[in-house]
């Protein structure tokens, strides 16, 4: 939900300054455009003439033609900023204008998966990824169709769990803020804060509004839980592809095998996704040296991610629902394509695009930018489609899925368990899925490339410039409207 806020005047400020900092080199010479008779000066020319005046005092700037053309393209933004500075009825907050301009520039793409992180937000994202943060202990998912914000997980030993907040509750208010999809990020910022301080939470449960006053505390996020369902079938619940989840998942798979597990049920329900590396590492446990997924960029270039040699041969069942997104779909799609697992549940979310996560500048800010679409090994489209289960099992209407770990009263889990038993008995055959398509290329473990092109592409000037951008960026496949509070 970051990036959904639309900025009007704020979107049109300090871009010129950013371009000057990124593109202009300080040298002893200043080149200015020559004007023919009668030709009017543009805001960019005014900016350059200001620079010329500064040059008389010893500050000089050199611009190439491509840099000048780019500067002129964004000059209207500086014009708006100048008007605000000249005529706004109170002294403008230029720092707030700068923040608004950055958000507004990305909001102009109309892509809810592309957005700007302030230094505080970028730090909070990295904090969450480490599995520890200060808050009340809930995971919230926003819907842009209903605008509701649903609590999809309550962390154990958290203030929210102690107060009786439940999975399935609708978050309606945090302190005095009315909460919906467009204000969720603000609500999260309120729920985060100083440990020990109280925050007011209101939720809708059935048709009743319930109010809670919760103390903030350090919340510890466990990414994986597991247990044996019986003497032969192990169960793993993977909450998110983040932190050290791949390591913990691997440890728990081997622990279940040591307890006698001959088949596994992997529960990806309500898993919003996460980092591509984690999805590939987990798939690698169960696949031979095969492609796990591939990306396709706007220029048609493809980038392949492979498993390595060696694979566990346990029968697998993967549980999914409508909130299983992104990296969940990468993992399930690969295991399904190769016939390694049967998918049970309902159609998944259908987020088949990948974002670069990039640090910006030196103040700790960052951004997330949609860069490519991804496909299953057989070439199936995931975006806006999702993964179709081999065994369709919708939850009964009104079922809030409030079950203890591995509770077989859970209808979908019970059916997945039955499929696992059938696999062990040799009595279950999954419906055929498409064979992985030949790529025509030599697949290799991929190196995430720079947004400007292939990993080894030279840095381009002007519009293709990646000056100041970290290389390579980290790849994230995640449903963006899921937050931790």
Instruction: Supply the helix-strand structural class.
Output: alpha+beta
Largest sheet: 7 strands, antiparallel
The low-confidence runs, each spanning 5 or more residues with pLDDT under 50, are 1-40, 432-472
**Shape descriptor:** globular
DSSP strand content: 15-25%
- Average of pLDDT: 80
Radius of gyration based on Cα positions: 26 Å
State the helical fraction: 25-40%
Fold and architecture overview:
- With 485 residues, this protein is of the alpha+beta class.
- Helices cover 27% and strands 24% of the residues.
- It has 12 helices and 22 strands.
- Strands 1, 13, 14, 15, 18, 19 and 21 form a 7-stranded antiparallel β-sheet that branches.
- Helix 9 (245-258) packs parallel to helix 10 and helix 10 (276-284) runs parallel beside helix 11 (327-337).
- The chain is globular, with a radius of gyration of 26 Å.
- The two termini are 14 Å apart.
């Amino acid at each position: 939900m970051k990036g959904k806020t639309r900025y009007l005047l704020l979107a049109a400020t300090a871009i010129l300054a950013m371009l000057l900092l990124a593109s202009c080199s300080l040298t002893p010479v200043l080149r200015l455009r020559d004007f023919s008779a009668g030709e009017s000066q543009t805001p960019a020319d005014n900016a350059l003439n200001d620079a010329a005046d500064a040059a008389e005092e010893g500050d000089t700037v050199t611009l190439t033609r491509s840099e000048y053309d780019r500067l002129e393209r964004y000059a209207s933004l500086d014009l708006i900023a100048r008007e605000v500075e000249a005529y706004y009825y109170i002294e403008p907050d230029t720092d707030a204008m700068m923040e608004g301009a950055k958000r507004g520039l990305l909001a102009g793409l109309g892509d809810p998966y592309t957005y700007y992180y302030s230094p505080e937000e970028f730090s909070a994202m990295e904090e969450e990824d480490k599995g520890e943060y200060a808050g009340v202990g809930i995971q919230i998912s926003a819907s842009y169709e209903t605008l509701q914000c649903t609590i999809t997980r309550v962390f154990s030993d958290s203030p929210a769990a102690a107060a009786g907040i439940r999975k399935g509750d609708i978050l309606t208010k945090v302190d005095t803020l009315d909460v919906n999809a467009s204000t969720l990020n603000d609500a999260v910022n309120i729920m985060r804060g100083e440990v020990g301080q109280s925050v007011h939470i209101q939720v809708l449960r059935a048709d009743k509004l319930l109010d809670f006053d919760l103390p903030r505390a350090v919340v510890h996020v466990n990414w994986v839980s597991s247990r044996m369902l019986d003497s032969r079938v192990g169960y793993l619940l993977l909450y998110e592809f983040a932190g050290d989840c791949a390591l913990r998942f691997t440890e728990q798979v081997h622990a279940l095998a040591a307890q006698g597990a001959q088949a596994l049920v992997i529960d990806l329900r309500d898993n919003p996704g996460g980092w591509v590396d984690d999805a590939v590492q987990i798939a690698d446990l169960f696949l031979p040296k095969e492609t796990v997924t591939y990306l396709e960029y706007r220029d048609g270039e493809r980038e392949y991610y492979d498993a390595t040699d060696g694979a566990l041969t346990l029968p697998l069942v993967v549980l999914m629902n409508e909130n299983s997104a992104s990296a969940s779909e990468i993992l399930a799609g690969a295991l399904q394509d190769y016939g390694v697992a049967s998918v049970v549940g309902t159609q998944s979310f259908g987020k088949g695009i990948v974002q670069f996560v990039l640090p910006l500048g030196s103040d700790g800010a960052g951004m997330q930018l949609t860069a490519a679409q991804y496909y299953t090994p057989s070439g199936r489209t995931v975006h806006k489609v999702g993964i179709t289960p081999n065994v369709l099992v919708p939850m009964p209407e009104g079922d809030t899925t409030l079950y203890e770990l591995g509770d077989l009263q859970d209808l979908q889990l019970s059916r997945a368990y039955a499929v696992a038993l059938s696999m062990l008995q040799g009595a279950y055959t999954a419906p055929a899925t498409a064979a992985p398509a030949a790529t025509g290329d030599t697949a290799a473990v991929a190196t995430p490339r720079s947004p400007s092109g292939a990993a080894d592409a030279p840095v381009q000037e002007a519009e293709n410039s990646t000056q100041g951008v970290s290389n390579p960026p980290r790849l994230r496949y995640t449903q963006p409207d899921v937050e931790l509070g």
